Amino acid sequence: MEKLRENYPIDIYWHSFQLRPPGSPPIPPAYRARIESSRPQFAARAREQYGIEINAGPFETDSRPALIAEKVAESQGKGKAFHDAVMHAYWQQARPIGDSEVLKEIAAEVGLNTDNFEIELANPEYEAAVEEDIELARQYGLDAVPALIFAEKYLVSGAQPYDLLKRVVEKVQEEESK
């Protein structure tokens, strides 16, 4: 997404989504093996196309605490910085982003007031904001991450090559210029 933003005048809005919320049935072993076997290809694509070394965090991390913490960060005007730092922590530093102490460290790194961080994380207002985003995703029928929606009409599901994302952005720009 950052590469797209560098090359095109686009705005990016992140919304909460849990691919496997608590209470989901266990991942069948064959499906888990398929996911695990695709990780080297994903890492190679990230390295080749974006210059990013992938060192992913724990496979079945509960992302909900990070989603709530992002809402806290948004309330302090640091949503994007926090989002980017959490993504970096999980995908490049293999940090467990479901851990409140890790999230507090990330919050401090991006300049959030962490004096009452644990209290903020327990605020039902932020939980409700996360649930609202997740409900919107359900209404759209989204079931993959990432799920990218361009111009509120083009859905790109899953991790896709940069060239595909570039073509979608160019198509949107072409339509908007008519």
Question: Helices, strands, pairings?
Answer:
Blueprint: H1 2-7, H2 29-50, H3 64-75, H4 79-93, H5 100-109, H6 117-121, H7 124-140, E1 147-150, E2 154-157, H8 162-176
> How many separate helices?
8
Fraction of residues in helices?
Answer: 55-70%
End-to-end gap: 25 Å
Biggest sheet statistics: 2 strands, antiparallel
Structure description:
The chain has helices spanning 2-7, 29-50, 64-75, 79-93, 100-109, 117-121, 124-140, 162-176, and strands at 147-150, 154-157. By secondary structure, it is mainly alpha-helical. It has a single domain, classed as Glutaredoxin, CATH 3.40.30. Strands 1-2 form a two-stranded antiparallel ribbon. Helix 3 packs antiparallel against helix 4, helix 3 (64-75) crosses helix 7 and helix 4 (79-93) crosses helix 5. The radius of gyration is 17 Å and the shape is globular.
Features:
Glutaredoxin; mainly alpha; 2 strands; two-stranded antiparallel ribbon
Would you kindly provide a brief summary of this structure?
The protein has eight helices and two strands.
